[in-house]
């Protein structure tokens, strides 16, 4: 009997060629961390072995993670508070898998379905914790986009519910799996001593933009604005006529909704949590600090686009997350981790024997060049990953669903990393250094700063426990 129920026939386009089938089967059945009850290759070939997924939050990244997952799962349902986005993505999903998922304006109706094995969550950050917790309590495994939480206490709650329910939970920090294994190679080089003892790590995550005054206007047709706000405070919808181009296009360039919500602390952690959740994750993993975290956070310099009082913006009609910053985090062994808006996007590792730089497009430096004559051990990258590297982040998630072991980007290591980013934002908002107790997971001797570890949900949108 299949571990996953079958709901949809598999279209011909989903079948893999023999070479890919054999490669994937070998990866999934290898001994070690990812060994499961049946091979992922069989799951792709046999309709009786395919899990049933649903996606909640469909614009941009929601479709991206869904689209790369059709080869592993059948999508029975989709949910979005924007009827236009929902309709467009249902049509695209039907084209991919031959059957249209059922659409929902309210994700809670989707969670009531017993035929769904897992949900993929790509709603804005302020929704992540509520949907994730309720999905696990409804018996679903979860793949949730990064950054996982809006606050540090939300992370603790998710950890509690993962432990309580035994659900598999993958965080979408896909640099742990994808990007041609460059980041895994970087960690393997450090573990193999290629730069000696680490002396400093710098994460360049880019700056953000400010905005003009953004007026309150009528809510676009098809968007349930109150539900989009959800746990966040009730405010008017704001937008200017200029449209965004490129990735995230087709929406206003300046708004407090689609895409630009990343520039508002009410819904996100700004650039610190957006790109920071990727690069600080790899840096923390490389430092072996993903079970502990920093002891001190120092805001060396920063620029906020609006005035703040007591850690809160004084105006509500402009972007309010930092545009420029340099943050120093004291990591275990007093190794400095610098998070900066300046320089090339990526991570610079500096040690006693050299340094190298890695990002999504390159890994460069003399220690990298030296690999040509002195390569890493054959199993170096697999040792970092904990087994054969999955084809992509969804591949790893489905393997974990079968084995009932946590995937490569688990909630505990993610939250430890993200605490550095959250603390950096609190330090910027209050304009002062913070001392952090990584055991108690609280800020030392600063009640005001500790008040930022959680946020109250708007009435009617509390987490349903």
Structure description:
- Residues 215-462 form the Gfo/Idh/MocA-like oxidoreductase bacterial type C-terminal domain.
- It holds the Pfam family GFO_IDH_MocA_C2.
- This protein is α/β, with parallel strands linked by helices and 465 residues long.
- Helix content is 32%, strand content 17%.
- The chain folds into two domains: 12-179 and 386-410, Rossmann fold (3-Layer(aba) Sandwich), CATH 3.40.50; 183-354 and 413-453, Dihydrodipicolinate Reductase, domain 2 (2-Layer Sandwich).
- The chain has a nine-stranded mixed β-sheet. The protein has a six-stranded parallel β-sheet with strand order 3-2-1-4-5-6, with helices on both faces.
- Strand 16 (434-437) and strand 17 form a beta hairpin.
- Helix 6 packs parallel to helix 7, helix 7 (152-165) runs antiparallel to helix 15 and helix 11 packs across helix 15 (411-430).
- The model is unreliable at 6-47 (pLDDT under 50).
